[in-house]
Design goal:
Elements (H helix, E strand, L loop, with lengths): L11 H5 L12 E4 L1 E6 L1 H7 L3 E2 L6 H13 L7 E6 L12 H7 L5 E5 L4 E4 L1 H6 L13 E3 L1 H4 L1 H5 L3 H17 L2 E8 L1 H12 L6 E7 L9 E2 L4 E9 L29 H13 L3 E6 L2 H14 L3 H4 L2 E4 L5 H10 L2 E4 L1 H7 L5 H11 L5 H6 L4 E3 L8 H9 L10 H8 L1 H6 L17 E4 L14 E6 L2 E5 L5
Parallel strand pairs: 2-8, 3-4, 4-5, 8-9, 9-11, 11-12, 12-13, 13-14, 14-15
Antiparallel strand pairs: 1-16, 5-6, 6-7, 10-11, 16-17, 17-18
Helix pairs in contact: 2-8, 3-4, 8-9, 10-11, 11-13, 14-17, 17-18
Length: 473
């Protein structure tokens, strides 16, 4: 390496004869850095100081830890719980505002479901949430979609708080061998990233995608080698866990409910046309089959720069064969999260109860995507942020027919990630002149029997060691 780039790839003795410094990896395994193609770093950083409810097995347990937090929190200050999953509870139901009022009536409380599309607020929190927010049920405290995505705005976090959260999240990303992310931001978070970039303190390649309704006056920009604004994000629907993903047929466990189509086809087309006028890549969140079909129709009708801008569909969980052909023919990119499949498509798990056994078989169809020759990038959506767990999930897909090889899973978490953000000329593979971004692992993931337990030993960004756990080297 030299000046942050790969200077040469050649015979060891030849290179070392011309180098001032060497690092002996002692048999550990070297890979290009992981690229997480769907993250929310600000939220992840903020969540480190919130009440983690991901391991609780009942509402009572969740209330216990929220009450514990309330005792050490000043009266009137917010309490936020994150990542509850009621499908794992003994009594499967959403909490209510009354359940949270039992925790405290002196603190505004919001708890967010693991999917990030559903939350519950207590009475005091509801009083602080503007009547302008849609999809807030003030009788039950249940919130869906827009107000859940914008909890940070509701709580009015300062720019400094956001910057501190980003720094914490970057440290976590480095610990997982991640050297680049595709980050979903609002306007406030974009401003925080810009300040961090000006302070030269990112040390992670952040490709941002801003909510389309907050993108007015902006254009694509490469601010530095670490920070870019690549595109806009639009939401076609919600999540399967929240029963807000837009389906063609009703939910198996909620008769009459087919989810929420947040944007109509015409509204999506308007977003796409506006984005293309500004040369923005479009990131379309679409999970249910109705949402995916509508997004595909919108791209077909209005997109003229797909090859140039590489528009993409995020998550794309309920993909049928007819959709795959259309996606391939348009050269759309798919950004998927294999951890979703492993966590929620196991036998008798959430996706089976929500969708039924037949639809489950084609949920997150990675093998079908791969054989259709569609570019597929992998990301985590922070659930959890671990490429190695994601790769493990893809090769151990609960639906046997949809498993892919470890090589192809690695490709989706590295080279395809660079392609998805149009950065493949800069990084994503070992080649002379590319940026020196790589990860050192304790063993070869192509030969490992349990990839998720491989240790990240070192992470390097632009030739600089940003994470180092090589005590044994």
């Amino acid at each position: 390496m030299e000046d942050g780039k790969i200077w040469d790839i050649d015979d060891f003795d030849k290179i070392m004869g011309e180098s001032d410094e060497k690092i002996d990896l002692n048999g550990n395994f070297l890979l290009p850095g992981f690229i997480d193609s769907h993250t929310h770093l600000v939220e992840m950083g903020l969540d480190t100081e919130r009440v983690d409810l991901s391991e609780e097995k009942s509402l009572d347990e969740a209330q216990y830890y929220l009450e514990k937090e309330a005792k050490s929190t000043d009266e009137g200050d917010w309490i936020i719980g994150v990542d509850f999953d009621e499908t794992l509870w003994k009594k499967v139901r959403y909490p209510t505002k009354e359940d949270l009022d039992e925790v405290s009536e002196e603190h505004p409380i919001i708890i967010r479901r693991t999917c990030g599309h559903v939350a519950v607020a207590n009475t005091l929190a509801l009083e602080r949430i503007s009547e302008d927010w849609k999809r807030v049920d003030r009788e039950t405290g249940l919130m869906r979609e827009e107000p859940v995505w914008n909890i940070d705005e509701i709580m009015d976090f300062s720019k400094e708080e956001r910057k501190k959260a980003i720094r914490r999240a970057i440290d976590r990303a480095h610990s997982h061998g991640i050297t680049s992310v595709h980050e979903v931001v609002d306007r406030d978070n974009w401003e925080a990233y810009k300040e961090l970039d000006e302070e030269e303190s990112l040390e992670l390649r952040v490709n941002c995608y801003i909510h389309f309704d907050e993108s007015e006056g902006l254009e694509p920009t490469d601010r530095s080698e670490f920070l870019s604004l690549k595109g806009v994000k639009m939401y076609a629907d919600g999540s399967i866990g929240g029963r807000t993903a837009a389906l063609n047929e009703e939910y198996a466990d909620d008769p009459g409910n087919k989810g929420i189509l947040i944007l109509s086809q015409e509204e999506m087309e308007e977003v796409i046309e506006d984005a293309e006028e500004r040369d923005f890549q479009v990131m379309a969140h679409a999970i249910g089959d109705r949402a995916i079909s509508t997004a595909i129709d919108a791209f077909e009708n209005s997109a003229e720069k797909i090859d140039e801008l590489r528009h993409r569909i995020e998550h794309a969980e309920m993909l049928w064969e007819r959709y795959l052909r259309r996606i391939r023919d348009m050269n759309l990119v798919l950004s998927t999260q294999p951890n979703f499949a492993y966590k929620w498509s196991q036998k008798s798990c959430m996706n089976e109860s929500r969708l039924g056994k037949e639809r489950l078989q084609k949920c997150n169809p990675y093998w079908d995507i791969q054989r259709s020759l569609i570019k597929m990038a992998f990301g985590s959506d922070n659930m959890p942020m671990s490429p190695l767990f994601g790769i493990y999930s893809a090769i151990n897909h609960p639906v046997l027919e949809q498993r892919i090889s470890s090589y192809n899973a690695l490709q989706s978490y590295i080279t395809n990630g660079a392609y998805a953000s149009r950065e493949e000329d800069r990084y994503g593979s070992f080649k002379e002149g590319k940026l020196a971004d790589f990860v050192v692992l304790s063993e070869n993931p192509l030969d490992s029997e349990n990839i998720k337990d491989i240790e990240v030993k070192m992470t390097v960004v632009g030739g600089k060691i940003v994470y180092d756990e090589r005590e044994d080297l």
